[in-house]
Design brief:
Order of helices and strands: EHEHEHEEEEEEHEEEHEEH
Radius of gyration: 17 Å
Strand content: 25-35%
Number of strands: 14
CATH architecture: 4-Layer Sandwich
Shape: globular
Structural class: alpha/beta
Number of domains: 1
CATH class: Alpha Beta
CATH topology: Purple Acid Phosphatase, chain A, domain 2
């Protein structure tokens, strides 16, 4: 079934910020990301795993991150990764910090979850990592897309293995996983560098870690035949602003 008309949208896609504490390099990169979000004016922010580096995150930092994302006003979608997985002590289990942030949506269902943003005509799907000890297939169980006029965005945190499905690594994503999904864009996390994994018929990119790649991915959803993805590198002024806040 051919989709109905899909309105143009812009995504800011990032991952692997690995926040640990105030005033470290990761926190400065987070602040530069906030500046970039203001400069690029996305309709939606997607964080594809490992926003936090571990579970021993201070409440003051969790509160700061939640409030900062809330102030961006646009929807922010967060997928728990392998560092900040949804174990009982996860920062995302501290509901008092997230419950009053209506624009922040966290994938929580172990088998995968759909989040539909009616105002943007965007449907998202993601499967969070729920344990440090259990392996998952990050795109396993993704449902077929619906011809409802929405953009379909999958979010996955894992290691791209190409056509090799038996590599002895965790959280594997194969080319078949991506191609068979049929979704418009797959926002990937877990690798440090900005990288195109698949260009057609499904676009799939790693945004890269801001600390290593130096920026974020900007995804312009234009029409059925065109999706543009580029790296937005933090400029000097944004890093200076981050270092002086």
């Amino acid at each position: 079934m051919k989709d109905k008309y899909k309105p143009p949208r812009r995504l800011l896609h990032t991952s692997d910020l690995h926040l640990q504490s105030f005033n470290d390099g990761a926190c400065r990169d987070f602040e530069a990301f906030l500046v970039a979000a203001g400069q690029t004016k996305p309709d939606l922010i997607v964080i594809a795993g490992d926003l936090f580096d571990h579970h021993r995150i201070g409440n003051d930092l969790i509160a700061y991150v939640a409030e900062s994302l809330k102030r961006l006003v646009v929807p922010a979608i967060i997928l728990p990764g392998n560092h900040d997985c949804l174990e009982p002590t996860s920062p995302y289990r501290q509901s008092r910090f997230w419950d009053n942030c209506s624009n922040i949506h966290i994938f929580r269902e172990p088998d995968g979850e759909i989040i539909r943003l009616d105002d943007l005509a965007i449907t998202l799907w993601g499967k969070p990592i729920t344990s440090y000890s259990e392996d998952i297939a990050p795109l396993g169980g993704i449902p077929h897309r619906k011809g409802n006029g929405d953009w379909h965005i999958a979010v996955a945190h894992g290691l791209y293995a190409g056509d090799e499905g038996n590599v002895s690594r965790s959280y594997l994503i194969t080319r078949e996983d991506i191609m068979c999904s049929g979704w418009d864009y797959v926002a990937l996390g877990h690798m440090n560098l900005f990288k195109c994994i698949c260009s057609a018929p499904v676009k799939a990119y790693y945004s890269g870690s801001p600390a290593i790649s130096g920026g974020v991915a900007i995804v312009d959803l234009i029409d059925d035949t065109k999706i543009d993805v580029r790296q937005y590198v933090f400029d000097v002024n944004s890093r200076i602003a981050a270092e002086t806040t």
